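Contributing new complexes? Match this layout with zinc ion.
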Amino acid sequence: MAERGKQTVRDLRRGSRSTLLQRLYFEGPLSRQELGRISGLSAGSVSNVIGELLADGLVEECGSVDSDGGRPRILLQVPPDRAHLVGVDVGETQVRVALFDLGLTELAASDHPLSDSGHDADHVVELILTGLSEVLADSGIDPATVLGVGVGVPGIVEQGDPGTDGLGIVVHSQTVDWDAVPLGRMLRAGTDLPLYVDNGAKTLGQAEMWFGAGRGARHAVVALFGSGVGACVIADGARFRGATSSAGEWGHTKVHVGGRLCRCGSRGCLEAYVGAEALVERWGRAPAGSSEKAGLAALLAAAEAGEPEAVGLLTEAAEYFGAAIADLINLFNPERIVIGGWAGLMLGPRLLPDIRDAATAYALRFPRAQTSIDLGRLGPDAVTVGAATLPLWHFLESGGDLPERLAGAAPALR
Ligand SMILES: [Zn+2]
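Output block (do not edit by hand):
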């Protein structure tokens, strides 16, 4: 019983640390008084926990504000330079590795296009590890200050047992031919840093919900529109994962029974009609040898110039996309739908009005009237930011749990 009692006290303390750290991270700078009011913790608890966080170097004082007639109130914040995060986007056409400070300001980045060997898993792991060494060297930071490496991948991620140091992480992706790739074990062979892996659409969703167009929504869908198409469903403030984390494979919902062959091997998937790869292929007029991004930009330019085939293709894509969004509205009743991803941001300004109209035409009236449809705000690199939120979330949720090499090292880092 005594052990259980001790455990409970420890859990409570960790819960209070996590609550205050999250408030300061997302809403700071804040005074102790404001923290007490918005967290519901007593003034004594706030004072104790903030004292601990200050001693650990996880919170710092950053000025003061006058209070009505009383003493000025000291403002507190999470120091952005206290630790660092790495985000990796294993995209459809390149591997991007970026290093951020705790405030998610990008300090260094490294891009490696995926060449002929495509998504060969050994090649991708090599590019990730090369990129990791490059951003650490370019930024000049002490690698010991990195809280972890988050990786966004195009596929379904099995997390394995917790406490196995990421070794159990396995990725399944039919579109890039990854059949149970043991990504955790492969990366672990090249780095000692804590590893976190999740689907790229889900990491993009996390980033837009925390810092972008989804902020403040409890029920939302963030749609990733790139070479392929995916979605991150947020239900009641939490990501909807399903039994084995594959929920949100929206790109492979069927829009045409017996239709075009998809990269997943099935037919008639949304992705086979509106994914950037499919659009460029169907148009067939992109300059030979151009990248997918250049191809899509050429398609857009042709449509802007009034070329009938390009106009027709994009008009049809907007209708498919809007109809598929109508399905999301009917299924999940979100208050907000955010369209992100590089292709979404490239085509969005032209297609958004048609996408909204199609969603209105195909969705049930009542839920459609409650839903806004907007473009993402974090730019085409939001997957890397999202990947970096994986170790960040672990840090905040654990109440500022630092790896042993970092704990107590606050003065040396400042
Ligand atoms: Zn498919």
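Reviewers usually confirm one structural detail per submission. For this one: The pocket of zinc ion is lined by residues 252, 262, 264, 266, 269, 271 (CB under 6 Å).
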